[in-house]
Amino acid sequence: MSEPKAPKIEFPCDYAIKVIGDSAPDFTEFVVGVVEQHAPGVSEADIFVKDSSKGRFCSVQLTILATGESQLAALFKDLKASGRVHMVL
Predict the structure, then answer these.
(1) Contact 69, 12 (CB under 8 A)
(2) Long-range CB pairs of 56-59, under 8 A, 24+ apart, other chains included
(3) What average pLDDT does this structure show over 35-57?
């Protein structure tokens, strides 16, 4: 039996991203700055920030206009390469 294939994404589309990293005063601004390089036009209304229960980690959820798989791959790579991001979902 073969593995089920991931659903094909039709671009352009709204795409939700969740970025998790160590909590820091500038973490949200850092994430938004990196995202803006790849998907300009993120609005404040599209950003949701949540700290972990003990305040050690922070997650930033936002929605971008995704234009293609290469854009998403480059965005994920830049976020992870920073050393500040633990996970991108």
Answers:
(1) no
(2) 56/22, 56/23, 57/20, 57/21, 57/22, 57/23, 57/86, 58/20, 58/21, 58/22, 58/23, 58/24, 58/27, 58/28, 59/18, 59/19, 59/20
(3) 93
How high is the mean pLDDT of the chain?
91
**What are the φ and ψ backbone dihedral angles of 78, each rounded to 5 degrees?**
-65, -40
Q: What pairing do the DSSP bridges indicate for beta strands 85-88 and 57-66?
A: unpaired
pTM, two decimals, is: 0.87
What separation, in Å, do the N-terminal and C-terminal C-alpha atoms of the chain show?
27
Nearest to 28 by CA among 49, 57, 51, 52: 49
DSSP category for residue 3: P
Distance of alpha carbon 27 from its chain centroid, rounded? 12
